[in-house]
Amino acid sequence: MKIGFVSLGCSKNLVDTEKTIGIFKANNYQIVNNPEEADVIVINTCGFIESAKEEAINTILEMAEYKKSKCKYLIVMGCLVERYKDELIKAIPEVDLFIKYSEYNTLWEQIENLLKDNKNINKYKDFDKVKERVVSTGENFAYLKIADGCSNRCTYCAIPYIRGPQVSRKIEDIVEEANKLVKEGYKELILIAQDTTKYGTDLYGKPKLVELLNEICKIKELKWVRFLYAYPETITDDLIKTVRDNDKICNYFDIPIQHISDSVLKRMNRQSNGTSIRKLIKKLRKEIPDVVIRTTVMVGFPGETKEDFEELYNFLKEAKFDKLGCFAYSKEDGTPAYRIKEQIHPMTKKSRYNKIMSLQQEISKENLENQIGRKIEILIEGKSFDGKTYVGRSYMDVPEIDGIVYLNTYKNLQLGEFTDGMVIDISNYDLICK
C-alpha cells in the first residue's frame, strides 16, 4: 500500500508525524507525497486554537475527496481528535479511524487492525520510544523533542488538557537520538518542548536544560543547536552563560512573554511579571551583545483594558524585539479564561492586533537595517528560482518562522555548507549578502 501524510500544527506534532511515517516505512509500506497516489491518507491534526481547528477540519474534508478515487482508508490522529473524537466520528463518517493523542501507544495496533495486516501488533507499545523516524524538514536541520505536555496551566491554553502535564525524556535517550541525527548529516538540531526551560523538572526534580545542552554540544560534527521555547521566569544565569560561552549554541532566545501588564499576566496565570520581564531582556542584551530575542504576545485577553494594551504597545516600542509574533485571544473550551465574563469584542481584538503588527514591521525594518555592514555565517539551504542567488539562514533565523538570507557570490557552494557573507541590504524580513 502507498501511504500519504499531512501534518498540521506545531513542530512537536511534526515529530510525531515523522515517527508515524517511520513506523509505516519500517513495515515496508511505500510513502508518497501526492495524495492522488495514496491508498491510505494519514492526517495529524492540531486543536490548539480556533483557526487551527478550522484548518484541520477543512484538511480532513479535502482529503476525504480522494476516497472517491484511489484512497481506501482515511486516518485522522492528534490533538483535535483528543479534544473532539466523539463529535468528529458523528460529523465526518468518511474517516475510517480516529486516533487520540493519548492513544498513541496503541496507534500501530489500531492501524494494523484497520488495514487487516496484523503482522506486528505488539511491536510498538511505547510511542515515545519509537526510534523509526523519517525527518521531513530537508537535509540540514531536524527537530529534537525533549519533552511533551505542559504543567504551567496558563488560563487561556488548552495544551495541558490535550497533552497532559510535562513529561521529559531521559537525557541519555535524547543524546542518543541527537547522535543518530548528526550521523545522518543534520547540521542543526532544534530542541523543542512546550516549555524547554523546565525540561527535566518532572524527571530529575530540577531543570536540566543546561546539562542537556552541554551533552549535546559534545557531538563533534554538530554545528548549531538552539531551543524553543524559553519561559521568562525559568531563564537562569547559568543558562544565559551556557548560551553565551558555547559556540555551538545559537545566541537566540524565543521567549513567549504574552503580555507586560501585571494585571493581564495575573489573569493569565503567568509566573512572570512586567518588572521581571524587563530585567530579563536587559540582562540578555548585556550578557550576549549579539543575542536575537523573539517573543510572542497576546492581545484581547478577557479583561484587557485600553491602559493594559497601551502599556504593552509602549513596551514593545521600547524593547524593539528582533522577532515578534502576535495572536488575538481565542476562546477555548474547557480553559479557565473561557468562563471570564469580560470578553473583548472581536473588532477590538483585531484593531489591537493590527496596531502591534504594524509597529513590529517598523521595528523589524530598523533592526535589520542595523545589520548592514555586518559579517555573518550562513547555512546554505538552496538557490533562488532563477538559480543566480544562494538562499540560506544565519543563527538569527529559525527555519519556517523567521527570515532568510540571500547570498550573491561567485563561489561554487554546496547545500548544507557554511560560508560567510557581508550584509549589504534588506528585503522585507530578509537579509541580502555578498
Describe this structure in a few short sentences.
With 434 residues, this protein is α/β, with parallel strands linked by helices.
Note down, in words, how this protein is organized:
The N and C termini lie far apart (48 Å). The protein is built from 13 helices and 18 strands. It has helices at residues 11-26, 50-64, 79-91, 107-115, 159-163, 171-183, 201-204, 209-216, 237-245, 262-267, 274-287, 306-319, 346-369; strands at residues 2-7, 30-32, 40-45, 73-78, 97-100, 141-145, 147-148, 167-168, 188-192, 224-228, 252-258, 292-299, 323-328, 375-383, 390-393, 405-407, 418-427, 430-433. The protein has a five-stranded parallel β-sheet, sandwiched between helices. A five-stranded mixed β-barrel has the order 14-15-16-18-17. Strands 6-9-10 form a three-stranded parallel β-sheet. With 434 residues, it is an alpha/beta fold. α6 (171-183) packs parallel to α8 (209-216) and α12 packs parallel to α13 (346-369). β3, α2 and β4 form a beta-alpha-beta unit. It folds into four domains: 2-129, Rossmann fold (3-Layer(aba) Sandwich); 137-250, Transcription Regulator spoIIAA (2-Layer Sandwich), CATH 3.30.750; 252-370, 2-Layer Sandwich (Transcription Regulator spoIIAA); 375-433, Nucleic acid-binding proteins (OB fold (Dihydrolipoamide Acetyltransferase, E2P), Beta Barrel), CATH 2.40.50.
Please render the helix and strand layout as text.
Layout lengths: L1 E6 L3 H16 L3 E3 L7 E6 L4 H15 L8 E6 H13 L5 E4 L6 H9 L25 E5 L1 E2 L10 H5 L3 E2 L2 H13 L4 E5 L8 H4 L4 H8 L7 E5 L8 H9 L6 E7 L3 H6 L6 H14 L4 E8 L6 H14 L3 E6 L17 H24 L5 E9 L6 E4 L11 E3 L10 E10 L2 E4 L1
Parallel strand pairs: 1-2, 1-3, 3-4, 4-5, 6-9, 9-10, 11-12, 12-13, 16-18
Antiparallel strand pairs: 7-8, 14-15, 14-17, 15-16, 17-18
Helix pairs in contact: 6-8, 12-13
